[in-house]
Amino acid sequence: MRKITLSNGTMVEVECLSCALTSGMVEPDGGVVVETEHFHAHQDVAYPIKGLIILASKRHIYCFDELTEEEKIDYINLLTKIRKAQREVLGIEHVYYFYNEDTTHHFHMWMVPRYDWMNEFGRSVESLRPVLRHARNQMSDKENVKEVLDAINRLKNAFREAR
Ligand SMILES: [Zn+2]
Known about the structure:
Layout: E1 2-5, E2 11-14, H1 17-22, E3 32-35, E4 39-43, E5 53-57, H2 69-90, E6 95-98, E7 108-113, H3 128-138, H4 142-162
Antiparallel strand pairs: 1-2, 3-4, 4-5, 5-7, 6-7
The structure holds zinc ion (ZN).
InterPro entries: HIT-like_sf (IPR036265)
GO molecular function: hydrolase activity
Organism: Neobacillus cucumis
């Protein structure tokens, strides 16, 4: 078991945070954005960036080549659906995707929207860590967090309407 402190300050003791989130044992701030039989999407509120989505598998796996045929199809369909909603609901033109197989949690893709303010941290992969750090340290004010939660709700509504 590992002790993990969530962004809202609560501490949970879990084997795997991704399992805890995708099974509903731990409720992510803002709730589930969208889920399917095999995948679960939520905002990572530790980094208050509008539309930053984490797409995690429900199964405790680590690598792309562990996906079943059914999961592969479910995954690409859900990923593209989220991408489309980021564009149509939040006006996000570009997204950076980050996924590492040697994660301490389990299979999850970060979908990080690109905003103009990020340009000062460079482009592409080298900008990712400074951008996230900046968001966490400089953008955790009430007003921005409210905007982030509002964006989550708009995305949720879009998925609800699309069903
Ligand atoms: Zn897990």
